[in-house]
Structure formats: structure tokens, C-alpha cells
Amino acid sequence: MLKAAGWRTVLATVFTRSVPSPTGFALACQTDKGLAPEVDYMAVRREEDAAFGRTLGVDEVHWLDLPEAPHRGYGSAVELFSAIRPGDEVWREAAHRIGALADRVEPDLMFACQAIGNHVDHRQTVRAMVRLGRPAAWYRDLPYVIRAPEEAPPPGLPGGLVPLAIPVSDHLPAKVAGACCYATQLPFQFGGADRVGSALTSFAAYEAGKAGRAGHAERFLIDPLAAKSVSSA
User: Fold this and answer.
1) What are phi and psi of 112, to 5 degrees?
2) Under a CB-based contact definition with an 8 Å cutoff, are residues 189 and 144 in contact?
3) Which of 77, 184, 201, 215 could lock 169 by a disulfide, CB 3.0 to 4.6 Å apart?
């Protein structure tokens, strides 16, 4: 939407580091997607980001090269969506790297996840963004929120945020095309590429209804200082 309105857009993915010869749960996270053990799964994920960027015309794509949770000692799917492990302070380095990129590109507006679904990497990203203290729009975490649309974000977001709903009907085809770039994720998260369009369209209609709108929308929690920027796009 912002790109269509003429904004310069920058995508940064925080947890992207390749780890040679993964074992245990980290290895299972790729083999259960049909990828052989010798495949560099994180390189595949980075290429999915790059394909997303090309598809949507993102101006810059950055990988902040921090290890995903399975490479930080989280040993099961249950642990990924449970409490942050004692001693997992990766959010501090995430804040440093996100801040360094923000200092360079000088964004008018930043977006970050709310951590709905409770994935530990999303929660650590929230902690990093809160540490930075920059005004932001906090989005609802797809596809987790589709499975739990009434779930509130876990504690940790900054105070004083206000709800904002943005109409997206005209942008749904681009959103679906972008989501389909993440081929390794589609079977588990959506049940296959052929279900992405219906899932995202139905959910956007749900979000519009919750906001008292017709059509399709995305809902955010947003710093009041940033709300005017999004509304003008």
C-alpha cells in the first residue's frame, strides 16, 4: 500500500543467520518441509525474502543475521511458543542492528509485529523495537492471527497505542502474490499455495468487519505520532 502511494520501502528480517550442519529440532524444521539436511535452509528463506521484495517492488531488503530460535537452544515447537528461555538476550543485539539500519535509512514510519501467537522470535523483536523507542505501527501477526483472531498480543507493547484500520481491498492481489513467495511456509501455514488467496481475503474481510468497515482491511496498533503518516498514504 505504501509503495503504491509512492513511499520508499525497506524490508528487514531479523532472524536470518545460516548455521552449518544443524541438528535436532533445528534440522527437523527444514526436513519436515521436504528440504534435505545438506540444504542451507536459511539461505532458502533469505531468497524467499528477496523474491517477495522483487514481487512487491521493495526498494531495499536487509537480513540482520541473527540466529532463529531453533539455533538458540529452543528444542521443540512447544518451546517456540512458550516462555522466552532464561539467558536468551538476543533482543539486545536485535535492537542494536535494527537501530543501526534505521539510523541509515531514516524511516518516516516503522512497522513491527505485535507477537500475536507468542512466537519467541516475534516477542524478542517486540522487545528490541520497544527498546529503540521509535514511533511505530504494530501489525497483527499473519498467519498466526488467522488461527486465533481474538487473541490479544502478549505483554510488552508500549503504552498509549491506538487502533487503526486501513482499507486494503485494492492491494489484496499484491499481498497474496507476496505471501506466495514463501514457498517453504505455505503447506503448513495455509495448507498449500492454492489456499493463500482465500485465507488472506477472508481474514481481511473479518478485520474490516471488526473495525466497522465494509470490504477488506488490516488492523494495527499505532503510536499516535505515527498514525497520521499511515492515514495519509
Assistant:
1) -150, 160
2) no
3) 215
